[in-house]
């Protein structure tokens, strides 16, 4: 036989621990001849024990930080906040398969014509692309769709100036220069956001923490990838790309306090060129018309060891 059958082993009876006989209990009782302390109360001892048990069972409330997220009722929000909330909801469910249907629901005249909503929407899209760089192409495609929608609104208002949309745009054209530029709001908002990224990149303080340095690197890589996706869809100009390259590589095309090209800078430019390389080569001379032939790095550059 392969296995030897064994009989059932009887389980050992466990002895009760700390079991006292009646004689032990009586002997222990006789040791107490007086109360342990003045004003001793058994009721108070039991009450204290119950309160302590209840206190341990209670879960302490979380303390909200100054900028912590707070769920707000829709009744407390104004029209701009509700529109931005709708944009955020669109990004949360946006995929390649449902792109057309979801974007069609999200588009509205207020998204383009309200400067606060447009700026907030662009910031939300940039932050989403930075958090999910894998889907930066989809978010750039969303920006392109908003740009096309803007052009459709302008065309509709031009063809029918007496319509509600036409009258609205006519009233807005009497405002300041930014308000009058009805056909370039989306592009301007995207360029301004790219400018903010460029300025923050130039003025980034040195990090002495490895974890903080890695987070900064990932953020820069995600940002530059999204900038490249916008460039591929002609949403930002060739000059914007030249400005980024000039700053990162210290080429001297534009004035910048940055004096050193680091390995992180080179990695960022490689990431950018992986996205826009072919298109950038086709337009290589387009953005150099405003740069003089004598323009050259007038500052001393330090080449990182990884680039030698």
TrEMBL record:
InterPro entries named in the record: ARM-type_fold, MIF4G-like_typ-3
GO-annotated molecular function: mRNA binding; translation initiation factor activity
Domain of life: Eukaryota
Domain MIF4G: 84-282
Keyword terms of this UniProt record: Initiation factor, Protein biosynthesis
GO cellular component, one term: eukaryotic translation initiation factor 4F complex
Pfam families (UniProt xref): MIF4G
Family: Belongs to the eukaryotic initiation factor 4G family.
Name assigned to this protein: Eukaryotic translation initation factor 4 gamma
Source organism per UniProt: Leishmania braziliensis MHOM/BR/75/M2904
